[in-house]
Amino acid sequence: MKDLSSGQIRQMFLDFFQEKGHTIEPSASLIPVDDPTLLWINSGVATMKKYFDGSVVPKNPRMTSSQKSIRTNDIENVGKTPRHHTLFEMLGNFSVGDYFKKEAITWAFELLTSPKWFGWDKEKLYMTVYPKDKDAKKYWEQVGVSPDHIIEIEDNFWDIGQGPSGPDSEIFYDRGEDFDNLAPDDPENYPGGENDRWLEVWNIVFSQFNHTPQDTYEPLPRKNIDTGMGLERVVSIFQHARTNFETDLFLPMIRETEKLSDHKTYGTSKQDDVAFRIIADHARAITVAIGDGALPSNVGRGYVIRRLIRRAIVNGQRLGINEAFLYKLAPVVGRTLESYYPDVLKQQAYIAKVIRSEEDRFNETLADGLKLLHEVIADAQKNQQKQIDGPIAFKLYDTYGFPVELTEEEAADAGLEVDQAGFEVEMQKQKDRARNARSGAKSMGVQRDLLLEIKDKSDYVGYDTLDVDHAKALEIIEDEKCVDQSKEDTIEVIFDKTPFYAEMGGQVADRGVVLDEEGDKVADVVDVQHAPNGQNLHTLKTQEPLIKGNEYHLVVDRLFHSRVEKNHTATHLLDQSLRNVLGGHTQQAGSLVEPNYLRFDFNHFGQVTDEDLEKVENMVNRQIFNEINVNTVVTDPKTGKKMGAIALFSEKYGDKVRVVSIGDFSVEFCGGTHVKNTREIGLFKIVSESGVGAGIRRIEAVTSRDAFKFLNDQTKELRQVAGALKVTQLKDVPNRVNQLQDEIKGLHQKQESLEAKLAGEQAQDVFKDKQEVSGGSIITGIIKDAGMDQLRQLADTWRAKNLSDVLVLGTGSGQKANLIVAVRDDKVNDGIKAGDLIKSIAGNIKGGGGGRPNMAQAGGKDPAGLDKAMHAAAEWLANR
User: What sections of the protein cross the membrane (predicted)?
Assistant: First the structure.
């Protein structure tokens, strides 16, 4: 067996397929672009959907990649099994309508067995095939695989619903009897079964059918190859590792964790080993994901990041690490991936900052979670319960990040068990919610065969002119058929040349008209998209029939186009200004360029201050006022990068690219249209800034006449405010507002003083009315014309005078009601808790609340229920 590093293995795979005519595609960001069906990029083929469903025809039908991916559907198994991971790399080769089974199988066998490449012993390899796929079996035998190493399995059919599907063939490596963890007669003890001996390393999917909306399987017009090889598994074979974790992809993080732990060593304790593995795996996943723009939050991708960080921290505590440590592993992760993902190491400071912030936040949450867990255990022991309820264990897991194993350990120390079945029910509900949130979108479209067949050459000339004569109608499409003459009101047309920009990169498509040779309008252009083979596909609303082969005059709406250009160039200025002001970690996460405004989404950790927004806005306007020329150069991607051009994860760049330079301020790859000089933009004004997702901020802005209108409207509103404040000069408005605020503050203080005095007088009567019940003494009362501040002050007075065991006060007016509960500290020790009492009575005012064991409060919207709440409180105490 060759002695290879993970980086060498990855490169060897890519080099092999490059020799076979494949284009090496760079790994895409983990964050999907324009794909609502995915939370993360979870496979190599996930980035190839547009090629396989036919919406785009690739420049080269042969592609290969090493794609970083994340899956969290079975996170509970990470660390416990040899091969489960959250982040992994999927090596793959892909053919879109080019080669098929024979070549895919022949090349796979060559890569695995040739001494020039992997050089594995062919006797160690086993293949599974779909029983009806006789061709796959035949080709495996032809390359030299013994028939007894080919196993037919009914499940070898890849199908994800509508879209491409077909049989597949899996390749297994026999690791030998030392890895045999099952009895010889165990039904799972075979290549393809659930065992440790035969390791699946590669899956080749022969995508040859369209799974239609009618649930039938029709032959694809172009058959495809999609393969996936797990890098981590292959590395474990080359490096003679018993699990994936004893390889150069994970051991560096494990060794660093050993240094940070309380004298723990990997390989000496099964329980500790699980913790080491979880930390190494999760550190890898969060480091790469944060580098790609994901940030911790309570929803979506951010929730996954937060959960992984918390799970790693809890396992760190198991190893005796009681301080922030995970952030220290970010540079280690960066070094393990540097050969192929250098940006991870370059961003290590930013990534570590994000992780450290989340660690500090969670250490506080962890303390709260442990406190809750101990309270739950104490209540269970007091009530002589034998187990902790499943929903409570799930709350600890979901809200506080406690692995259920930790809850089980703490419970076991107290002689309790955890309702595992109830926990699994809650876990399944969460998985169903996540799956249903994405089930409405198509995972992969059905190939649109007609457009795939159209290969007519069509030139876009809109960079130079917006008015084209003698544009020939090459194809006219109605109801998915090519016709010679249109009949419908809405049709699609491909011209041999066009000035109409097709929607791309956030820039909306051009609008305009189609004229006949006499200059009469025959259609309006309402949309333009890219056809699979790259032509501009025009959607027309027709007034007259169009005839295939006829020539037409195409005219773009110049005003619409000009306004879009202004906003697009302003987007480039905004992008660079954000990097300059907020930091180089800022990445574009999406944009929309319309004629009347622009929208720009970007990754950023934390909020953007008003001061920084002002800096950004001023920086953009400075470039506009400096009247900088905007230049475009057509070159190759390598030269463009040398020029300093910024590339986006979401874009695939061909052999030729357009590099747009705004002086030396901004240089970007961009296929859109732009102004010739920044002075054409006129003015730039930020309208709003907000958070729209986990670590994603959004700026909306306007330029030119829309910016002037926005400022003019603000001035009108300010004049209205000035009139209402009775000031003659606009500059005097802030001073007048400050004066009014001071007056209001004074009046509010007087009101509070009067309310406190009135509440105190009422309280004298309330405090005299003490009830004695079996659970202790209680004072209840309703205070009129008071707020929560007054109720809290009365509770302090009650506590200082030691008037009863429990106090319950309420107040309300209109549709608002408030309750406060206070309990003497010695009664808290007896099990009477304010939080429990407030929860039991808050429903009477149609509200809810909570608080500390000795003080709690609630708000509601039904003051009429206050009397019932008082009676309910006395009954609650009596029944304790």
Answer: none
Strand pairing report for 467-478 and 776-782: unpaired
Report the alpha-carbon distance of residue 690 to residue 698 in Å, rounded. Answer: 5
- 492 plus 591 within the same structural domain: no
Phi, psi angle pair for 431, to nearest 5°: -65, -40
pLDDT at position 441, please? 43
DSSP string, 214-226: TS-EEEEEEEEEE
DSSP E strands, 216-332:
217-230
Q: Provide the pLDDT for residue 648.
A: 65
Q: Is 674 annotated as a binding residue?
A: yes
- What is the end-to-end Cα distance of the chain in Å, rounded? 73
Model pLDDT, residue 693: 66
State the pLDDT at residue 436.
Answer: 58
CB 172 within 8 Å of CB 199: yes
Q: Are strands 536-542 and 490-495 parallel, antiparallel or unpaired?
A: antiparallel
C-alpha–C-alpha distance, residues 275 and 380, integer Å: 28
**Contact of 86 with 281, CB cutoff 8 Å:** yes
Greater model confidence, 555 or 196: 555
> Do 515 and 494 fall into the same domain?
yes
**What single-letter amino acid sits at 181?**
N
Read off the pLDDT of residues 220-241 as tens digits, 9 standing for 90 and up: 878 899 999 999 999 999 999 9
Predicted pLDDT at 328: 96
Mean pLDDT of the region 611-637: 95
Residue 353 is part of which domain span? Answer: 290-438
Separation between Cα atoms, residue 198 and residue 183, nearest integer Å = 14
DSSP character string of 482-531: EESB--SSEEEEEESEE-PPPPBTTBPPP-EEEE-TTS-EEEEEEEEEE-
State the DSSP code for 628: -
Q: What pairing do the DSSP bridges indicate for beta strands 150-152 and 125-129?
A: parallel
Summarised one tens digit per residue, pLDDT across range 782-797 is 888 788 888 888 888 8
Residue 778's φ and ψ, nearest 5 degrees, are -145, 140
Residues 233 and 304 grouped into a single domain: no
Residue 652: pLDDT band by 50, 70, 90 thresholds? Answer: low
Ligand-binding annotation for 482, yes or no, is no
263 assigned to a ligand binding site: no
Q: 683: which strand partners?
A: none
pLDDT reported for residue 411: 82
User: Is there a domain that residue 479 lies in?
Assistant: yes
Three-class SS state of 187: coil
39 and 187 belong to one structural domain:
yes
Q: Which residues pair with 669 in a beta bridge?
A: 659
CB 557 within 8 A of CB 647: no
Backbone Cα Rg of the chain:
34
Average pLDDT for 171-181: 90
Do 763 and 707 lie in a common domain? no
3-state secondary structure of 269: coil
Q: Given this model, what pLDDT does residue 446 score?
A: 53
Say how far apart CA 260 and CA 322 lie, in whole Å: 10
Question: 680 and 566 in contact (C-beta within 8 Å)?
Answer: yes
pLDDT exceeds 70 at position 52: yes
Amino acid letter for position 565? E
pLDDT of residue 511: 96
* pLDDT of res. 203: 95
- Cα distances from 715 to residues 129, 689, 725, 795, 840, in angstroms, run 73, 20, 15, 49, 53
828, 830, 832, 833 alpha-carbon torsion, rounded to 10°: 40
Q: Give 37-61 as a DSSP string.
A: T-SS--SSGGGGHHHHTTSS--SSS
Considering 526, 556, 586, which residue would you say is the last residue of a domain? 556
Q: How far apart are CA 781 and CA 770, in angstroms?
A: 10
The CATH number that applies at residue 161 is 3.30.930.10
Q: In the chain, helix, strand, coil percent, each to 5?
A: 40, 25, 30
